[in-house]
Design goal:
Elements (H helix, E strand, L loop, with lengths): L1 H14 L12 E3 L3 E7 L5 E11 L5 E6 L7 E9 L5 E13 L6 E5 L2 E7 L8 E2 L4 E2 L5 E2 L25 E6 L3 E5 L7 E3 L6 E9 L14 E9 L4 E9 L8
Antiparallel strand pairs: 1-3, 2-3, 3-13, 3-14, 4-5, 4-12, 5-6, 6-7, 7-10, 8-9, 8-15, 11-13, 15-16, 16-17
Bound molecules: zinc ion (ZN).
Zinc ion binds next to strand 7.
Length: about 250
């Protein structure tokens, strides 16, 4: 008798129409790397340039809110706001940090290492590893997917300017359902230094949210690799293959 009573009470919310709010979590996914080229600088250095883009294909936005106590503080602590099925939300502290970046002429707040990109000789992830110069990211709705998931908003919820200015003490940044945070190849710091890179085939490994700062519905699609044949002397890059999937060297 008692057992059946317990079951009835547990089933009550479902019988009343499921009022229990459930999280609408984001899901980050790395889009195809694009626009590869080898650039020679005026001083003769060789830079491998390409574009990167992280999409939110989840059931809710990724929202990262930065706050600092006063304008003397050089960094902001980051809270993730998670929306739910009933129109509410909850906030959780993350280990992510925002810093104010001026070196790339952006002059706004960047979430550090929202995406990391490394490159190593194919089959040798523990050998020489090259890294993308860009480290900080302003999360915003730069581009909408051509085939967005359900509930993607028609208008940008996190527009240009979301990442604040020098006097901001708080910013609300994010990535709506079905939008991508796009970093074209010509952007500042969107390159790897490939001076004296030996001719060969390399694997580029891009990881969004590499330290798991943000809660998502899936973490097994946060990496994408692209195998490229690079000839620095000839200035050519050929993409051989690419896919979403695990890649090294330092992210498990
Ligand atoms: Zn920026």
């Amino acid at each position: 008798m008692l057992a059946s009573l317990v079951v009835s009470i547990a089933a009550l919310p479902a019988m009343l129409g499921g009022c229990e709010p459930t999280d609408r979590l984001p899901d980050l996914r790395v889009g195809e790397l694009y626009g590869f080229s080898v650039q020679r600088t005026a001083s003769g250095r060789a830079l491998l340039r390409f574009g990167t883009i992280g999409f939110n294909v989840g059931a809710g936005p990724l929202e990262a809110r930065g706050v600092r106590t006063d304008t003397d503080s050089g960094s902001m602590l980051v809270t993730q706001r998670i929306y739910d099925s009933e129109g509410g939300h909850r906030d959780r502290r993350t280990s992510a940090v925002m810093v104010y970046d001026t070196g790339d002429n952006h002059d706004h707040w960047h979430t550090r290492q929202f995406m990391t990109v490394t490159m190593y000789r194919l089959g040798n992830p523990t050998g020489n590893v090259y890294g993308l110069r860009k480290l900080g990211y302003c999360l915003l709705d730069a581009e909408r997917m051509s085939n967005p998931p359900p509930n993607s908003p028609d208008t940008r919820q996190y527009p240009n300017g979301s990442c604040g200015n020098r006097s901001s003490t708080s910013v609300r940044t994010g990535l709506s359902i079905g939008y991508g945070d796009d970093y074209p190849p010509q952007y500042a710091h969107q390159w790897m230094d490939v001076n004296r890179l030996p001719l060969g085939t390399y694997r580029i490994c891009a990881t969004v949210d590499p330290f798991g700062d943000f809660v998502e519905s899936r973490d097994d699609n946060n990496q994408r690799w692209a195998d490229v044949r690079v000839n620095v002397r000839a200035g050519t890059v050929q993409v051989l293959d690419t896919a979403v999937g695990r890649c090294g060297p330092n992210v498990s």
